[in-house]
Here is the input.
Amino acid sequence: MLYNTIMNYLNNKYDVIVVGAGHAGCEAALSCARLGLKVLLATLNIDNIALQPCNPAIGGPAKSTLVREIAALGGEMGEAADATYIQMKMLNSSKGPAVRALRAQSDKKEYSDYMRHLLEKTNNIYLRQACITDLIVKDGEITGAVDEFGIEYSVRAAVLTTGTSLAGKIFVGLKSYSAGRLGEQAAIGLSDSLRKLGINLKKLKTGTPPRVDSRTIDYSKMEIQPGDEVLNFYSFKPNRPVRKQYPCYLTRTNEETHNIIRANLDKSPMFQGLIQGVGPRYCPSIEDKVVRFHENPSHHIFIEPEGLGTYEVYIQGFSSSLPADVQIKMLRTLPGLEKAHVIKPAYAVEYDYVPAIQTTHSLMSKQVKGLFFAGQINGTSGYEEAAAQGLIAGINAFNYLNHSEMLELSRSSSYIGTLIDDLVTKDIQDPYRMLTSRSEYRLLLRQDNADERLTPIGHKIGLVDEAQFNIFKIKQENIAKEIARLKEEKVPANDDTNSILAKYGEHIDRGMKLAELLKRPNITYNIIKELHPQTQKLNISRDVYEQAEVMIKYDGYLKRQEFQVEQAGKLDKFKIPENIDYMSIEHISSETKEKLNKIRPKTLAQASRIGGVKPADISVLMVILEKHQFAIKN
Here is the structure.
């Protein structure tokens, strides 16, 4: 009765509530609001919107492709990174296009301010500093949410993006306390509400390094890591901001560092069993690195500025849960950090998450209609993974409320599709991080062609406007024209041509089409411009000629992957009835039955990706589906 009285007084009626305003929450709220929904965005601390609690950077290997895909679909992370960078760097630039990765060092406060101001000026978004403690469900559907003050909010859908705050506990040495992040309370109560709804929760662990006062660092003892002279950006919009760049620095651990760590492992909550959650495999703490990779004499440590308005710097690669005094001793063994003053200690945080096998590819709960999960609550790590999920969850909250077809991206369409398919198909045991090696189609799913793959989808949904879609169409037309031109025009086999080619270890004995020459490993488009004055005069934009170059140079490999996609698509055509009774199927093992029953895949292709499901099991299922000989659960 009290809930209803308060609700009627406040008129708290919304289409959707987004719980948490980190990177997932921001994308979810923005996509819902831009599509016309009335959104309540509830966050524990309104001053920490889009906070980067770990490294102040966006992108990196595989993650940069996620950011470009978010931009192509009409999301905001790429725009924010482009607007607030203090360094842009293309990683793996000398390697193939499938593994090149843009990384933006961000001004941490500027990034957060950018997102907050955007949320505040976006129609249909209502910010509320509140801790959501309970969900209201009627007849299996979300109808409301309740905060710590007992205020009820009437909603028709909910997107939970709680990050590390859900029942979070921070560890510094053997001391611990309830918190989601340093200086911020934990979200208490919501875990119990989810359990009452029949949703299973588990524990994961992550951590962050110490922050140090840059005025106490001797950078002359470190290797400078500058940004790129030729800038790249995440957004596909023109006229990206050109900002002054600031360097990062590289130092290394040594035997003294390692000895201090080994001598204090008895004070580590992880090694003493106080932390039950599993930590990120690909971003371990420094003590974990020293123990697991004991043969390594040193580990790289990067010193990264947190922003232009602060002396605080981030010690990348030095996350720890050891006591604060031990951390200081460890830090002061690093070259350049002998007099380092620690502003914030490193810490580990253990939190609740919802294993994503309980959700569909739309990121909606299988148990509760209208309830979506995105970000670290699904068992992932990383701002980019969170933002990608938040965007998809927000779009699908809109689709759910409008009775539209859910957006479920395939593995062959995007890294976002790969990420979500891995989460909902595989029983994740440690925080999931997107890697290029996770995609079997990584040459097709490059960061440079994310707009080609996903902008038409973003436009159809309504998140990419006509102006941006026209820019996209013109770019694609120009790429096609340039490829056609390169396949037609030639360079002659004369002394002038070969004198230029000799500089790059090449020679031709006959006139050659530009595209044929470009297929050679040593030849780039810039060399083509040097060889062919007409190409130089055309002044083709870099985003056009770089993609034309990739499509010509890797044509054979691209066709091979397209064939793989086609073959894999055959299994996708075998749809599995939602109410199939796996336990009654003969000729497959009990273990396989249990896994299929737990995941309940939608297609044979998804079933084939479940760990432990054998090719022979898929063959049995295929025969059953072809003959429609399947049992149905009552």
Summary: The chain has four domains: 2-204+352-461, 211-350, 473-560, 573-627. Residues 466-488 form the longest helix (23 residues). DSSP finds 22 helices and 23 strands in the chain. Residues 1-9 have pLDDT under 50 and may be disordered.
